[in-house]
Write a structure and sequence with these properties.
alpha/beta, Rossmann fold, 10 strands, 10-stranded mixed β-sheet
């Protein structure tokens, strides 16, 4: 959690993400990078000759306004004693973001998101959804302002596969800064022909529990029609503060399914959702 990235469009949701990032940076002693991509300006704008740029004063005005807004964000962070920088790109949001994540060695992206429903979910993917699908980085999705980064009860959703075990190991190292009082390891049993036998699930959960022997961890195997619905129902019943789920899958088809579950949670859960991913082998 040392290098935190906040993509911003300066909206109220982006402000929620910024406020969360400053609180996170203060407890992790990290630094923040603010990122914005001016999608209305050509990607190679910075390489244009000055005489060509002069023909588009509206683009120059946009860039000047962005610099002022970024300077305001940096001034606020520095007043809190948080190291920070800003990056303004032109052109496609997602392509630029992927490049920034790699170049800056980002540990965590924080984004605000509002839920969508119905056809919107399938035809109008938000920037947050696009990041879930494409960008290999840990991603914290927040819906509401967080008064204090103090997640007492954390839910870790797992299908108990190899990639989940790897993600759980990384999760245990990350959550130390939160000092949780309870961790709930939850596996959702959904209707279908290829579900894991209960005895196997229980054994695998014991293996995970051994990895967290120094923490207050409880295991649960619950049934619901979908993974996303099961996670939300359980989190509501237990008063969970943070939902954590792995998006480590490298197999393209499997990643589509794991990513879609994260997207559904990002859309429908009012709780913060931490999607775990990695970029080390890219």
């Amino acid at each position: 959690m040392q290098n935190i990235l906040v993509p911003t469009d300066f909206s109220p949701l982006a402000k929620i993400a910024t406020d969360t990032a400053t609180k996170m940076a203060m407890i992790s002693h990290g630094e923040i990078t603010f990122y914005h991509s001016a999608t209305e300006i050509p990607q190679d704008w910075k390489n244009w000759p000055l005489n060509e740029k002069d023909k588009f004063p509206e683009n120059q005005k946009i860039m000047s306004q962005l610099v002022r807004k970024m300077n305001s964000l940096k001034k606020h962070c520095k007043s809190l004693g948080i190291p920070c920088q800003s990056i303004v790109r032109t052109g496609p949001f997602l392509e630029n973001l992927e490049e920034v994540v790699m170049q800056e060695k980002i540990d965590l992206i924080i984004m605000g998101s509002h839920g969508v429903s119905g056809k919107q979910e399938f035809f109008i993917g938000s920037n947050t959804q696009k990041v879930i699908r494409r960008v290999h980085s840990n991603l914290l999705i927040v819906k509401e302002p967080i008064d204090e980064i103090r997640f007492k009860k954390i839910l870790f959703a797992a299908s108990l596969g190899i990639s989940d075990q790897e993600a759980f190991a990384d999760f245990l190292s990350i959550i130390k800064i939160f000092k949780p009082e309870e961790i709930h390891l939850v596996t959702i049993d959904t209707p279908g022909f290829f579900n894991q036998p209960t005895i196997l699930v229980k054994q695998r959960q014991k293996d995970f529990k051994k990895m967290a022997s120094n923490l207050q961890l409880k295991t649960h195997f619950v049934r619901n029609f979908t993974i996303e619905a099961g996670i939300r129902k359980f989190s509501e019943s237990k008063g969970v503060d943070l939902i954590v789920i792995s998006n480590y899958e490298r197999h393209p088809i499997k990643r589509i399914f794991s990513g879609s579950t994260v997207e559904m949670l990002a859309n429908h859960s009012n709780l913060p959702v931490l999607s775990l991913d990695k970029i080390s082998d890219f």
